[in-house]
Write a structure and sequence with these properties.
The chain contains no helices and 20 strands. The chain is globular and about 55 Å long. It folds into three domains: about 5-40; about 45-140; about 140-230, Sandwich (Immunoglobulin-like), CATH 2.60.40. The strands form five sheets. It has a seven-stranded mixed beta sheet with strand order 8-5-4-20-19-16-17, with no helix packed on it. Strand 6 and strand 7 (about 80-85) form a beta hairpin. By secondary structure, the chain is mainly β. Helices cover about 0% and strands about 50% of the residues.
Length: about 250
């Protein structure tokens, strides 16, 4: 008897985030029939997000219809706030995916108690779904010096517990994406240049533009920092070093 061949693969798809782009892990499963016809299904892997800077909150890509409890802790692991949100169809900021996104981005995240927290580097953000899914993000420090004349942003990133080179994306007002990389210990900065003709459509950064920089963790979770172009988030005397838990 001929047997169907079962396969499982992981596709790195390019998805729209607002009007920018970035990679999303999209696993596939399926089987090949004896005549080589194929039946498959594809889904977006769970991805959690933390935003801070001029706007802050949390988001995620997750199957609709699940209630999340989100706990935000300070670097000493004291609880700053707790929030709840339900994932919905099209609720995530990615490509119409299922999930949830911040209220300032048109989403429903979150109902906070005692009040919406100010997300900051070295905070720990825990995600718990009603179906048993658990995850956390240790928020890294993203710095950025924005050169309005040169239409660029560069800076160092300090991402706790990560050793791999970080994939970094930058947007201006959620448009005109640029891609870069950075070392997670701050030794190699990222650079996003909107005058570089090889990077895509040029863009003239204005002082009142919002510049967003995001890095991907190895498991696909994301940390964003949003900065006003006239101010940026320069690295001054203080560096947020990784906290070592004993």
């Amino acid at each position: 008897m001929a047997r169907a061949h079962i396969f499982l693969s992981l596709v790195l798809a390019v998805a729209w985030l607002g009007s920018g782009v970035g990679p999303v892990a999209r696993p596939q499963a399926g089987y090949l029939e004896p005549d080589r016809d194929m039946v498959s299904v594809e889904w977006a892997a769970p991805v959690m997000e933390v935003y801070y800077g001029t706007f802050s909150s949390a988001g995620g890509i997750y199957a609709s219809g699940h209630t999340f409890q989100i706990i935000v802790r300070d670097p000493d692991l004291n609880i700053k706030a707790m929030g709840t949100v339900t994932s919905t169809t099209g609720g995530a900021s990615w490509w119409g995916n299922e999930g949830f996104r911040p209220s300032w981005a048109g989403g429903d995240c979150c109902a906070w108690s005692p009040a919406e927290p100010d997300f900051r580097p070295r905070d720990v953000v825990q995600f718990y779904s009603d179906d048993g899914y658990q995850n956390y993000i240790w928020v890294g420090a993203i710095y950025g010096t924005i050169d309005v004349e040169a239409d660029s942003v560069t800076g160092r990133i300090y991402a706790p517990l990560i050793t791999q080179t970080l994939e970094v994306w930058c947007w201006v007002d959620w448009l005109h994406a640029r891609q870069s990389t950075a070392a997670p210990d701050g030794s190699v900065p990222y650079l996003c240049d909107w005058q570089d003709p090889g990077g895509g459509e040029p863009w003239d950064i204005k002082p009142d533009d919002q510049v967003m920089v995001v890095y991907w963790e190895p498991d696909g979770d994301m940390v964003y920092r949003q900065m006003l172009a006239s101010e940026g988030a320069p690295l001054l005397s203080r560096v947020y070093l990784p906290l070592v838990a004993k």
